[in-house]
Amino acid sequence: MLTEAEEERLNELMTRYDALENQCEESDLLEAEMKLMRCMAKVRAWTPEMRAGSGVVVSWRYGNVCVQRGVQLRSEDDAADDADRTEQVQEKAPVEEISLPLLTKMSSERTLAVQAALMQQPDKSLALLAWTLCPDECVWQRSVQ
After folding, report:
1. Does the keyword Coiled coil belong to this entry (predicted)?
2. For residues 145 and 30, what is the distance between their CA atoms, to the nearest angstrom?
3. How much is the pTM?
């Protein structure tokens, strides 16, 4: 949700950044400014209605301050529904339970199926790994100055 001026400035910064090829201190400053512009656009996209219904959690992660926006409290109805679900789960008869050997076998089959699917699609496997390991820079800020 960049403005026209911000989009032009971002394109200009990216052109200068590509020309520098990460060889000097200026490229680090350009990269930081581009990251800041993108983060500000994400924050602006967070409407007042969304802000009214959610909040921010600030925590300490691996020695850095992390900010997570858009966190919502669970309503009392959700908590009551969870309590009902817990009671329903506890009321199951022993006959309905799955035996340990069957559960182990099913788990092994599922693992093998996922492994085979990921081996057939290495590009999607890499994307899934990257998505899992690389948190969004705007949500999980590495450092706050």
Report:
1. yes
2. 17
3. 0.34
Angle (CA) 142-127-125 rounded to 5° is 130
Token readout for 57 is 């959690």
Structure tokens at 66: 């992390």
Half-sphere exposure of residue 53, counting CA atoms within 13 Å on the CB side? 6
Distance of CA 98 to the CA centre of its chain: 34
Amino acid at 23: Q
The answer to whether 22 and 12 are in contact (CB under 8 A) is no
Q: pLDDT band at 81, cuts 50/70/90?
A: low
A 10 A CB-CB count for 7 gives: 12
Torsion of Cα atoms, 72 then 76 then 80 then 86, to 10°:
30
CA–CA separation, 118 and 134 (whole Å): 19
* Cross-strand bridge partners of residue 57: 68
Over residues 27-74, the pLDDT tens digits come to 778 788 888 888 888 777 777 787 777 777 788 888 888 877 777 766
